[in-house]
Design a protein that fits this description.
alpha/beta, Rossmann fold, 2 domains, 6-stranded mixed β-sheet, 14 strands
Protein backbone atom coordinates (compact mmCIF):
# COMPACT_ATOMS: atom_id res chain seq x y z
CA UNK A 1 0.00 0.00 0.00
CA UNK A 2 1.02 3.63 -0.33
CA UNK A 3 3.11 5.14 2.40
CA UNK A 4 1.52 7.92 4.42
CA UNK A 5 1.65 11.03 2.29
CA UNK A 6 1.54 14.63 3.51
CA UNK A 7 -1.43 16.91 2.96
CA UNK A 8 -1.57 18.50 -0.47
CA UNK A 9 -2.27 22.17 -1.01
CA UNK A 10 -1.43 25.52 -2.55
CA UNK A 11 0.64 28.32 -1.09
CA UNK A 12 0.17 31.90 -2.24
CA UNK A 13 2.40 34.81 -1.36
CA UNK A 14 3.34 38.23 -2.77
CA UNK A 15 6.64 38.82 -4.54
CA UNK A 16 7.54 35.14 -4.43
CA UNK A 17 10.48 33.89 -6.45
CA UNK A 18 11.26 30.63 -8.23
CA UNK A 19 14.48 29.18 -9.59
CA UNK A 20 13.59 27.39 -12.78
CA UNK A 21 16.85 25.52 -12.88
CA UNK A 22 16.38 23.91 -9.47
CA UNK A 23 12.60 24.04 -9.13
CA UNK A 24 12.73 25.81 -5.78
CA UNK A 25 10.44 28.59 -4.55
CA UNK A 26 11.22 31.32 -2.03
CA UNK A 27 9.16 33.87 -0.14
CA UNK A 28 9.92 37.56 -0.47
CA UNK A 29 12.03 37.29 2.69
CA UNK A 30 14.15 34.52 1.15
CA UNK A 31 12.67 31.53 3.00
CA UNK A 32 12.62 28.37 0.89
CA UNK A 33 9.30 26.61 0.42
CA UNK A 34 10.59 23.07 0.88
CA UNK A 35 7.15 21.45 0.57
CA UNK A 36 7.03 22.17 -3.16
CA UNK A 37 10.18 20.18 -3.96
CA UNK A 38 11.09 16.56 -4.66
CA UNK A 39 13.51 16.69 -1.72
CA UNK A 40 10.91 17.98 0.75
CA UNK A 41 12.11 18.84 4.23
CA UNK A 42 15.62 17.59 3.41
CA UNK A 43 16.21 20.96 1.75
CA UNK A 44 16.04 22.73 5.08
CA UNK A 45 19.36 21.15 5.97
CA UNK A 46 21.07 22.56 2.89
CA UNK A 47 22.69 25.97 2.55
CA UNK A 48 20.61 27.59 -0.19
CA UNK A 49 20.70 31.19 -1.29
CA UNK A 50 17.46 32.92 -2.25
CA UNK A 51 16.68 33.73 -5.87
CA UNK A 52 17.76 37.19 -6.89
CA UNK A 53 17.56 39.17 -10.09
CA UNK A 54 14.82 37.09 -11.65
CA UNK A 55 12.46 38.39 -14.33
CA UNK A 56 9.42 40.00 -12.65
CA UNK A 57 5.92 38.97 -13.71
CA UNK A 58 2.90 41.16 -13.02
CA UNK A 59 -0.31 39.51 -11.88
CA UNK A 60 -0.67 35.88 -10.80
CA UNK A 61 1.71 33.06 -11.63
CA UNK A 62 1.46 29.33 -10.92
CA UNK A 63 4.77 27.48 -10.88
CA UNK A 64 4.88 23.93 -12.26
CA UNK A 65 8.67 23.81 -12.30
CA UNK A 66 10.10 20.80 -10.55
CA UNK A 67 13.45 19.07 -10.23
CA UNK A 68 14.63 16.85 -13.11
CA UNK A 69 11.73 17.93 -15.38
CA UNK A 70 13.95 19.70 -17.90
CA UNK A 71 15.03 16.45 -19.53
CA UNK A 72 12.89 13.62 -18.14
CA UNK A 73 9.35 12.85 -19.34
CA UNK A 74 8.43 11.02 -16.15
CA UNK A 75 9.35 13.86 -13.82
CA UNK A 76 7.87 16.44 -16.21
CA UNK A 77 4.47 14.74 -16.23
CA UNK A 78 4.19 13.09 -12.81
CA UNK A 79 5.98 15.69 -10.69
CA UNK A 80 5.11 18.81 -12.67
CA UNK A 81 1.89 18.67 -14.68
CA UNK A 82 -0.01 16.84 -11.95
CA UNK A 83 0.28 20.01 -9.85
CA UNK A 84 -2.45 21.46 -12.06
CA UNK A 85 -4.88 19.15 -10.28
CA UNK A 86 -3.70 20.27 -6.85
CA UNK A 87 -4.25 23.91 -7.80
CA UNK A 88 -7.67 23.25 -9.30
CA UNK A 89 -8.83 21.18 -6.33
CA UNK A 90 -7.90 24.15 -4.12
CA UNK A 91 -10.17 26.40 -6.19
CA UNK A 92 -7.67 27.87 -8.65
CA UNK A 93 -8.57 26.86 -12.24
CA UNK A 94 -5.56 26.73 -14.54
CA UNK A 95 -7.15 29.19 -16.94
CA UNK A 96 -7.40 31.91 -14.29
CA UNK A 97 -3.64 32.43 -13.91
CA UNK A 98 -1.93 35.22 -15.83
CA UNK A 99 1.25 33.15 -16.10
CA UNK A 100 2.32 29.52 -15.80
CA UNK A 101 6.03 29.04 -15.07
CA UNK A 102 7.34 25.71 -16.28
CA UNK A 103 9.98 23.88 -18.28
CA UNK A 104 9.51 23.47 -22.00
CA UNK A 105 7.81 20.18 -22.88
CA UNK A 106 10.42 17.45 -23.18
CA UNK A 107 8.59 15.69 -26.04
CA UNK A 108 5.74 16.11 -28.49
CA UNK A 109 3.56 14.01 -26.20
CA UNK A 110 4.30 16.29 -23.26
CA UNK A 111 3.39 19.31 -25.37
CA UNK A 112 0.08 17.74 -26.40
CA UNK A 113 -0.65 16.81 -22.80
CA UNK A 114 0.02 20.36 -21.65
CA UNK A 115 -2.62 21.59 -24.08
CA UNK A 116 -5.12 18.88 -23.09
CA UNK A 117 -4.81 19.91 -19.44
CA UNK A 118 -5.84 23.46 -20.30
CA UNK A 119 -2.55 25.38 -20.32
CA UNK A 120 -2.68 28.10 -22.99
CA UNK A 121 0.48 29.02 -24.92
CA UNK A 122 0.18 32.69 -24.01
CA UNK A 123 0.29 31.81 -20.30
CA UNK A 124 3.61 29.98 -20.51
CA UNK A 125 6.85 31.43 -19.21
CA UNK A 126 9.59 28.93 -20.00
CA UNK A 127 12.22 28.29 -17.36
CA UNK A 128 14.80 27.73 -20.08
CA UNK A 129 14.28 31.35 -21.20
CA UNK A 130 13.87 32.81 -17.71
CA UNK A 131 16.04 30.81 -15.27
CA UNK A 132 14.45 32.68 -12.36
CA UNK A 133 11.29 34.72 -11.89
CA UNK A 134 9.63 36.89 -9.27
CA UNK A 135 5.85 37.17 -9.41
CA UNK A 136 3.55 39.86 -8.06
CA UNK A 137 1.47 37.00 -6.65
CA UNK A 138 3.09 33.59 -6.77
CA UNK A 139 1.21 30.31 -6.38
CA UNK A 140 3.07 27.07 -5.71
CA UNK A 141 1.73 23.65 -4.83
CA UNK A 142 3.06 20.99 -2.56
CA UNK A 143 4.87 18.13 -4.25
CA UNK A 144 2.25 15.60 -5.44
CA UNK A 145 3.27 13.01 -2.86
CA UNK A 146 6.81 12.46 -1.64
CA UNK A 147 9.94 11.64 -3.62
CA UNK A 148 9.32 8.35 -5.48
CA UNK A 149 5.76 8.09 -4.11
CA UNK A 150 2.72 9.58 -5.83
CA UNK A 151 -0.65 10.61 -4.44
CA UNK A 152 -3.98 9.79 -6.10
CA UNK A 153 -4.22 13.34 -7.44
CA UNK A 154 -1.56 12.39 -10.02
CA UNK A 155 -3.58 9.92 -12.13
CA UNK A 156 -6.79 11.82 -11.39
CA UNK A 157 -5.30 14.95 -12.93
CA UNK A 158 -3.62 13.29 -15.90
CA UNK A 159 -6.69 11.28 -16.84
CA UNK A 160 -8.53 14.53 -17.53
CA UNK A 161 -6.53 14.50 -20.77
CA UNK A 162 -8.10 11.23 -21.91
CA UNK A 163 -11.18 10.83 -24.06
CA UNK A 164 -13.79 8.12 -24.38
CA UNK A 165 -12.14 4.91 -25.58
CA UNK A 166 -13.44 1.36 -26.08
CA UNK A 167 -12.99 -1.32 -23.47
CA UNK A 168 -9.24 -1.87 -22.98
CA UNK A 169 -7.80 -4.72 -25.02
CA UNK A 170 -4.23 -3.83 -26.00
CA UNK A 171 -1.27 -5.81 -24.71
CA UNK A 172 1.82 -3.61 -24.74
CA UNK A 173 5.52 -4.03 -24.17
CA UNK A 174 7.37 -0.77 -23.46
CA UNK A 175 11.02 -1.05 -24.55
CA UNK A 176 13.79 1.01 -23.02
CA UNK A 177 16.81 2.47 -24.80
CA UNK A 178 19.91 4.15 -23.38
CA UNK A 179 21.08 3.16 -19.92
CA UNK A 180 19.33 0.62 -17.66
CA UNK A 181 17.96 -1.31 -20.62
CA UNK A 182 17.35 -5.05 -20.68
CA UNK A 183 20.62 -6.47 -21.96
CA UNK A 184 19.08 -9.72 -23.19
CA UNK A 185 15.97 -8.13 -24.67
CA UNK A 186 16.40 -10.04 -27.92
CA UNK A 187 15.64 -13.25 -26.01
CA UNK A 188 12.18 -12.15 -24.90
CA UNK A 189 10.85 -11.32 -28.37
CA UNK A 190 9.45 -14.83 -28.94
CA UNK A 191 7.73 -14.72 -25.54
CA UNK A 192 6.01 -11.45 -26.38
CA UNK A 193 4.91 -12.78 -29.75
CA UNK A 194 3.51 -15.96 -28.21
CA UNK A 195 1.19 -13.94 -26.00
CA UNK A 196 0.14 -11.45 -28.70
CA UNK A 197 1.96 -8.52 -27.11
CA UNK A 198 2.84 -5.57 -29.33
CA UNK A 199 5.96 -3.47 -28.84
CA UNK A 200 5.09 0.17 -28.26
CA UNK A 201 6.86 2.91 -30.25
CA UNK A 202 6.17 6.41 -28.92
CA UNK A 203 7.27 7.90 -32.25
CA UNK A 204 4.23 6.36 -33.92
CA UNK A 205 1.69 7.50 -31.33
CA UNK A 206 0.05 10.93 -31.56
CA UNK A 207 -2.29 10.52 -28.58
CA UNK A 208 -0.58 8.72 -25.69
CA UNK A 209 -3.32 9.36 -23.10
CA UNK A 210 -5.99 7.57 -25.16
CA UNK A 211 -3.58 4.92 -26.46
CA UNK A 212 -2.62 3.82 -22.96
CA UNK A 213 -6.20 4.06 -21.77
CA UNK A 214 -7.00 1.35 -24.31
CA UNK A 215 -4.40 -1.03 -22.80
CA UNK A 216 -5.34 -4.13 -20.79
CA UNK A 217 -1.78 -5.31 -20.08
CA UNK A 218 1.43 -3.27 -19.95
CA UNK A 219 4.92 -4.73 -19.52
CA UNK A 220 8.09 -2.68 -19.28
CA UNK A 221 11.39 -2.02 -17.58
CA UNK A 222 11.52 0.57 -14.83
CA UNK A 223 11.91 3.99 -16.42
CA UNK A 224 10.12 7.03 -17.83
CA UNK A 225 8.41 4.86 -20.45
CA UNK A 226 6.06 3.59 -17.74
CA UNK A 227 4.87 7.11 -16.91
CA UNK A 228 1.88 6.64 -19.20
CA UNK A 229 0.37 3.94 -16.99
CA UNK A 230 -1.15 6.93 -15.19
CA UNK A 231 -3.66 7.13 -18.06
CA UNK A 232 -4.79 3.50 -17.76
CA UNK A 233 -8.23 2.37 -16.72
CA UNK A 234 -8.64 0.75 -13.28
CA UNK A 235 -7.81 -2.93 -13.32
CA UNK A 236 -5.25 -2.71 -16.11
CA UNK A 237 -2.46 -5.20 -15.41
CA UNK A 238 1.06 -3.84 -15.04
CA UNK A 239 4.24 -5.96 -15.03
CA UNK A 240 7.27 -3.85 -14.14
CA UNK A 241 10.74 -5.32 -14.63
CA UNK A 242 12.89 -3.86 -11.85
CA UNK A 243 16.71 -3.81 -12.05
CA UNK A 244 18.50 -4.81 -8.87
CA UNK A 245 20.60 -1.63 -8.86
CA UNK A 246 17.65 0.72 -9.37
CA UNK A 247 14.72 -0.57 -7.32
CA UNK A 248 12.40 2.33 -6.51
CA UNK A 249 8.62 2.50 -5.97
CA UNK A 250 7.74 5.24 -8.51
CA UNK A 251 5.51 3.18 -10.75
CA UNK A 252 4.17 0.92 -8.05
CA UNK A 253 2.70 3.99 -6.36
CA UNK A 254 1.36 5.37 -9.66
CA UNK A 255 -0.33 2.02 -10.27
CA UNK A 256 -1.69 1.85 -6.73
CA UNK A 257 -3.02 5.40 -6.98
CA UNK A 258 -4.73 4.66 -10.30
CA UNK A 259 -6.31 1.38 -9.15
CA UNK A 260 -4.20 -0.77 -11.46
CA UNK A 261 -3.28 -4.42 -10.91
CA UNK A 262 0.47 -4.22 -10.33
CA UNK A 263 3.09 -6.97 -10.35
CA UNK A 264 6.85 -7.01 -10.83
CA UNK A 265 9.78 -9.30 -11.50
CA UNK A 266 13.43 -8.69 -10.65
CA UNK A 267 16.30 -8.26 -13.07
CA UNK A 268 19.98 -8.60 -12.24
CA UNK A 269 21.98 -5.45 -12.96
CA UNK A 270 25.38 -5.87 -14.59
CA UNK A 271 26.94 -3.72 -11.87
CA UNK A 272 26.19 -2.40 -8.42
CA UNK A 273 26.72 1.04 -6.91
CA UNK A 274 27.74 1.71 -3.34
CA UNK A 275 24.80 1.88 -0.89
CA UNK A 276 23.37 5.38 -0.65
CA UNK A 277 24.67 6.51 -4.04
CA UNK A 278 22.42 9.25 -5.38
CA UNK A 279 21.05 9.32 -8.90
CA UNK A 280 20.05 6.75 -11.51
CA UNK A 281 21.92 3.52 -12.01
CA UNK A 282 24.15 3.45 -15.12
CA UNK A 283 23.93 -0.35 -15.47
CA UNK A 284 21.94 -2.48 -17.88
CA UNK A 285 20.39 -5.63 -16.49
CA UNK A 286 19.43 -9.19 -17.36
CA UNK A 287 16.13 -10.97 -16.85
CA UNK A 288 15.41 -14.66 -16.60
CA UNK A 289 13.39 -15.56 -19.69
CA UNK A 290 11.47 -18.40 -18.04
CA UNK A 291 10.50 -16.21 -15.11
CA UNK A 292 9.37 -13.59 -17.61
CA UNK A 293 7.32 -16.17 -19.54
CA UNK A 294 5.69 -17.52 -16.39
CA UNK A 295 4.77 -14.05 -15.12
CA UNK A 296 3.10 -13.09 -18.39
CA UNK A 297 1.35 -16.42 -18.58
CA UNK A 298 -0.13 -15.91 -15.14
CA UNK A 299 -1.34 -12.40 -15.98
CA UNK A 300 -2.87 -13.50 -19.28
CA UNK A 301 -4.62 -16.41 -17.52
CA UNK A 302 -6.05 -13.95 -15.01
CA UNK A 303 -7.25 -11.72 -17.85
CA UNK A 304 -8.95 -14.65 -19.58
CA UNK A 305 -10.63 -15.68 -16.34
CA UNK A 306 -11.86 -12.15 -15.71
CA UNK A 307 -13.17 -11.90 -19.26
CA UNK A 308 -14.99 -15.20 -18.87
CA UNK A 309 -16.65 -14.00 -15.68
CA UNK A 310 -18.24 -10.98 -17.39
Amino acid sequence: MLEDLPELGVLRFPEGAVSGLAGRAFTASGQIVAETTWYGQDLRDQNLGAVSGGHRLDGTCLSLVTEFAADNYGHYVLDGLSRIGIAERAGHPIGDFDHIYLNRPVSTSAKVLLNKLGVRPEQCVWAEDEPAITAETLFVTTFPGTKRNYARIVPETLQKATGVVPAPTRRLYIPRAGTRKIANESEIGPVLAAFGIETYDFRECDNEPDFFRSARLIIGAHGAGLTNIAFCQPGTKILEIVPSDHAYPYFYTVAESAGLDYAYIDGQSTGSRRPGTFGPSPYDFMIDVETFRDAIGQLVAEMDAEQGAL
